[in-house]
Amino acid sequence: MAEPLLSVEHVSRRFGGLLAVNAASLSTPAARITALIGPNGAGKTTLFAVISGFLKPSAGRVRYGGEDVTGEPPHRLARRGIARTFQIVQPFAGLSVRDNILVGAHLRHRARSAALDIAEAVAREVGLGEMLDQPAHTLTVSGRKRLELARTLATEPKLLLLDEVLAGLNPSEIRDIVPVIRALGARGIGVIMIEHVMQAVMSLAEHVFVLAEGRIIAAGTPAQVAADPVVVEAYLGHGAAAKVRSAHVQ
Amino acid sequence: MRGFLPIVIAVAVLAVVPAVVHSNVVLNFLVVALMIALAGQGWNILGGYGGQYSFGHAAFFGTGAYVTAILQVHYGVNAWIGFAAGIFAGAAVGAIIGGLAFRAGLRSSYFALVTLAFAEVLRIVASVAPITGAGVGLLVKLDLRAQSFQFQSRALFYYVILALVAIALVIAQLLERSRFGVWLIAVRENEDAAMALGVNAFAVKLAAMALSAAVTAAAGCFYVQYFLFIDSGIAYGTWISIEALLTPIIGGAGTVFGALVGALVVKSLGEGAKLVTGDVPGLDLMIYGAVLIAVIRFAPRGLVGAFADLHGRLARRFMAPQPPVREALRG
Lengths: 250, 331
What we know:
The structure holds 2 protein chains of 2 kinds. By secondary structure, chain A is of the alpha/beta class. Chain A has 10 helices and 10 strands. In chain A, helix 3 packs across helix 4, helix 3 runs parallel beside helix 5 and helix 4 packs across helix 5. The radius of gyration of chain A is 19 Å and the shape is globular. By secondary structure, chain B is an all-alpha fold. At the A-B interface, helix 2, helix 3 and helix 5 of A face helix 7 and helix 8 of B.
């Protein structure tokens, strides 16, 4: 494998007595969609917060594009090309869709006209082209998720961290947005997605990391990971893998 | 130059007033109202656009006023240079208070309390320090010449403060359409989301506070030239902190004209009440309170916001084709 775009090396994050992330390591190259899965409370979002600079790791390093970026503030990482969405969407509620995306577009374009052009192009790309003038607080859940995605795309990222952008969407909305995400990988953006919608993980991700109780317990292709008894047990409890297998045999 | 037309019209209308009205009482009222509008527009940059509610803009008003007065009284510096120095000093105080408060991560009510505390500390220091004239205050020597920034005619003072307000309106208009303004509004709406999009929230808030302080300091500098007297209660008193935040909130925080509209309305109501009831102490504050409650209840986006909503509703009703019609035309 060539020099990875991002490599997380033995990162730990402690909150008082709770070790939310425990010596987790993962890496991803550019132009690939990687999934980060795991049961609730596994530390996935905490790990994202460390990578994107919102939390400093208690131990370990984050390397991006060959440089050590551990502990850099979020705005500097965004300028380097790391963008994230929030699991709980954080729209600029009082602003229009256009003005929301404009904030991201201004990162690399000082001129208002250039930034507005980018904002409109990105809005069309994620299917918000018709809603540019609508206030963000009037959007549906699906619209807000798209807006999260659009704002981060407007920053022209090299690495995109998507935190459950499919959660809360109905199957037809998921069908609409999956090709948008697939296109990002094809365009050369490295994507890491936290996702519970396994169907989407299976169809989108080339590589999957499984986080449970703060540790990476498995990694591989979606098929390998799904068949891994350790992963099944992490979700369903100790001894579950054996039961599932025996159920299949019968 | 789109967007500047309303400013040109508003300033032009206000500029005609001295040609029509010769009453010194009316002109004096308008000069004071515009001075409050200027102080309020300073607050509006940080509070209205940036969402950082300062309760201590007296710190900047007073610093502008004292620097202008001290340079003239103690050092014989030209009033115009004192005026410029006062604005810079106000910006510097803003940057210092902002640097400390934002570095400590203070938000919302904590930020408000810290700014209030800084203004009070400055008031107490000014009330005992010899250089500020302590409890007695400072009198600027009467010298009715333009080069001393003093004018025989009220109308000239009126034009000076109107020009300053015009500049403050233009600053807000430029802010709305600049990258810095977009970032500042993003910080107001959601600081974390803004940072994730590459906005250096600390730097943006700090710059906004320095700019905000400079504008409010200009109002303080003007106060000294107009009244030729300053003491700690006027310079750093809570009255100016309150008026600087009340006027843009009532007029419409985060709008270009909010502070101007708010200052004219609030000051008119205050003066009107005095005319009706005689000079009852504290009556103006009661009026402000009542107006503030009414505005928050019925027009939370201020008078300018309420007007924009009304205008939009009427426009939709009478001018635009109904959505189905538009669909049919396109199909």
